[in-house]
Amino acid sequence: MTVARSWSRIVDWLAANHPTTAALVNPPATAVDIRYLQAAINRPLPADLVELLELANGTEHRAVRGSLIPTLYNLVPVMDMLSIRQMLQEIERRIVGSGPRRGDSEPAGSPTTDWLDTFLPIADAADAGLLYVDLRDGDQFGCVWEWYAEGGGASAPWWASVGEMIDDVASALTEGRPALQAYANGAVWPAQRHSPQLAEVDEGYLRWSAT
């Protein structure tokens, strides 16, 4: 399923079931925004990420309760992608210095505890967690990981692509089934992150809870 179709399912579900969240989806990123992002990271962008940005430039509800993407995440606009990435690059260089990192030469989808220049944040959480796209070369180029500064990346990518992530969320919302089932079934979760996630509206906020 295309990103456009999956995103339409999400937006339609939000409009019918949670209009407060629907109103917080940003307008599409401009062509200038996307070209600037491409130039700033100096890496190819996955086509499905570009397609998503052409539909919505993140959301505006990251400072309030609730989340659109499991487990705790909301999509960030282009300029926030770059500012978060720059902040993490600076932190990494202060800690370990400049130069190659462990993982730089590994293919996309390889675990690493370092923040690499080939990682691009696409969503954040109130507890400082991130979702990022892995832009290293390889068969898993464009896969989506979770990141926490305390422990680095998750043990495996959560989704194989942005398109898969959006389709998973769309199906979870519209079909009432848990998201992240493939990851829960196929990889070792960190402690207390071991279950698929079911969407619910709790006290007026969209959130995800373990099944």
From TrEMBL:
Residue span, Knr4/Smi1-like domain: 28-168
Highest taxon of source: Bacteria
InterPro entries: Knr4/Smi1-like_dom (IPR018958), Knr4/Smi1-like_sf (IPR037883)
Family matches, as SUPFAM superfamilies: SMI1/KNR4-like
Any Pfam family matching the protein: SMI1_KNR4
Descriptive protein name: Cell wall assembly regulator SMI1
Organism: Kribbella kalugense
